[in-house]
Amino acid sequence: MNWSMGPSSSDFSLHSNANRGKLLVEDQSIVILDFGAQYSQLIARRIRELKVFTAVLPCTASLEEIKSYHPVGIILSGGPSSVYDPDAPPADERVLSQGVPVLGICYGLQFIVHKLGGKVRPAPKREYGHAEVNVAGKSRLFHGLPPTLSVWMSHGDEALELPLGFREVARTSNALAAIEDEARGIWAVQFHPEVHHTKHGTGLLRNFAFDICGARGDWTPQHFIDDTIRQVKRTVGDKGMAICGLSGGVDSAVAAVLVHRAMGERLTCVFVNNGVLRKNEFQKVQASLRDKLGLNVVAVDAGERFLKKLAGVTDPEQKRKIIGNEFIYVFDEEAHRIEQKIGKVEWLVQGTLYPDVIESRSVRGPSQTIKTHHNVGGLPDKMKLKLIEPLKDLFKDEARRIGREMEMPEEIIQRQPFPGPGLAVRILGEVTPERIAMLQEADDIVVNEVRRAGLYTQIWQSFAVLLPVMSVGVMGDQRTYAYTCAVRAVHSEDGMTADWTPLPYDVLKMISSRIVNEVRGINRVVYDITSKPPGTIEWE
Ligand code: XMP
Predict the structure, then answer these.
(1) Residues 255 and 351 sit within 8 Å (Cβ to Cβ)
(2) How many A from CA of 539 to the centre of ligand 1?
């Protein structure tokens, strides 16, 4: 596997422009120039899976910076713009003539055509979704792949005239799908080889990385660990303290262990009880992080503060913001306390993963922000701390592999994701202590039964949701009128898309019967059979 060091949106990051290149120790890479596609990192991920070091740089990166990565290949990503938009993202077109093989994807193709003298126009028929592509003749990019490919298209523009030297290699029934100029070392596809819906997409990227670019494919998680430790050491120097907010989840724990290896006792971890954790979580997490990982953990029981602020609030975004803000206050206070004891705190370590960043960032403005993820919120600004986010270009399973490589306990590595705002986004309507207690019990039953069935590690997430819907039931001879609990279990690769999981009937039966019998206040259990999209994983 291979890992990328990408650009950062924060005021500071280990991957900031100033530090990039200078810190890089790899002697070869494939550089991805990001034109603002929501899924540029997916390209990086696919290349990392081929064990090739990848760097994702903004499309505006200078040629000098690109070269400092010793690229054996350059990929131009997709993007939401048209090459004719006045604010179309620019890139240094000299990347097309460095003698380094180039692969354009979607907008990348149009950029190449436009810059090299061809013509791009709005397509008469826009193509979104599945399409069949027919490959004509021989092409190194398509070597060994079937002549007809099922691909994922998403574009509004198309190439009308190709630049001199280019030839068409593949097309759909309506449009051009791939072009190349072997002599110039440029290949481009209109579809998205990086998404799962494109069958053989990985094969195409493999052809590019190995056959065309001659990459070695020897990059490993240990490289990532060594690199990150080295970068953290260089960045923080030998003075100044760091703090890390632990959630008990794998992301923050892996980030903390990585930074702990670089900074040792200069790192203090803070674990806040926000009142909406799972049953017994506050105690369990402290024990595993302190005892098993040897981290220096300060536990803050601030549940009441959070619940006071949440009283009477029903709007999902409002709940997220309240919890995010309160977390900042609590954390800030704790940081000052730590500072008084051990010295100036300058750094904040966060376990932010790539999907957290991408879902909070919107290429086209705030209307497309789906949910506010509080772990990329205002903490560093408020506290004037500099951010260390060693996992911000990785997906969850990649962070898990890093944790495993560092021999972290499986109970932490395997833990299913749990959102920062906790049970608050799984209690629809007002969050009250009674409802929290009810959901904690129901949730505990779901998790335990899924574990007992041996399914816990095979499922991305399995949990209970408390609905403010009351219905009539009968227990013994008594009429009941109580709440409804929804059970949700999903498969996902990265949390960005998900399919609902068909849990076995006997597991569902046991979950339902135990919840109704053991949790006072719930008399009905329903099963959520919605995928993402169009649903989201959490209900709020
Ligand atoms: P959604 O509900 O957006 O969730 O489909 C995608 C993944 O993200 C988790 N999630 C969060 N994680 N802070 C987090 O750390 C948050 O605010 C947050 N909201 C959602 C969710 O559990 C799922 O794995």
Answers:
(1) yes
(2) 10
